[in-house]
Amino acid sequence: MNKNKTLWGLVLMISFVLLLAACAPEREGAEEAANDDNGSDESQGNEESGQTDKPEELVVWINDEDIAQDVSAQMFDKYTEETGIEVKFERVALPDQVQELSLAGPTGDGPDLFFQPQDSLGNIVAQGLAMPIEYTDEEKAAFTDVAMDAFTYDGEIYGGSSSD
């Protein structure tokens, strides 16, 4: 039973990270490329040709525990293989993440993704440290209503369950 629960937790965590990866903010290097001095607008050309710019790397803060690192490494390796986007995870103790995020986020030095329990959501949103996620109906169906409710604040969804 515990093994089955762990497997489902891993599947849901992978789904969660894949969904959030699409919401990652533009990195400083991509911003400079879009504003280069020769006047060309690469991002517009890519949009017109149907291609979208994607980041070269995503930064993810994980809990500072060996099990979190082990599960995350497997998940991120698979994501990199499927997308070509490197995932760099940094171990930050769960109790310290919100404080560190409040310092690093506004300067652009925060992670693209981070893991926090749902009871931290109100504080994180009130500080402006998280952006809502738009799920399709199909993506929402992968989660229970209880899980989706846990990460909904003022009618907006800010995360997803890594286990059910």
From TrEMBL:
Q: Which GO terms describe its molecular function?
A: maltose binding
Ranges of compositional bias, category Acidic residues: 31-40
Q: Which UniProt keywords apply?
A: Signal, Transport
Q: Where is this region: Disordered?
A: 29-56
Signal peptide segment: 1-21
Q: Which GO terms describe its cellular component?
A: ATP-binding cassette (ABC) transporter complex, substrate-binding subunit-containing
The record's section on PROSITE patterns has: PROKAR_LIPOPROTEIN (PS51257)
Q: Where are the transmembrane segments?
A: none
User: A GO term (biological process) for this protein?
Assistant: maltose transport
Q: Does the keyword Signal apply?
A: yes
Keyword Electron transport appears in the UniProt entry = no
Please give the family membership noted in the entry: Belongs to the bacterial solute-binding protein 1 family.
Name it: Maltose/maltodextrin ABC transporter
Origin organism of this chain? Answer: Gracilibacillus boraciitolerans JCM 21714
Give the organism's phylogenetic lineage: Bacteria, Bacillati, Bacillota, Bacilli, Bacillales
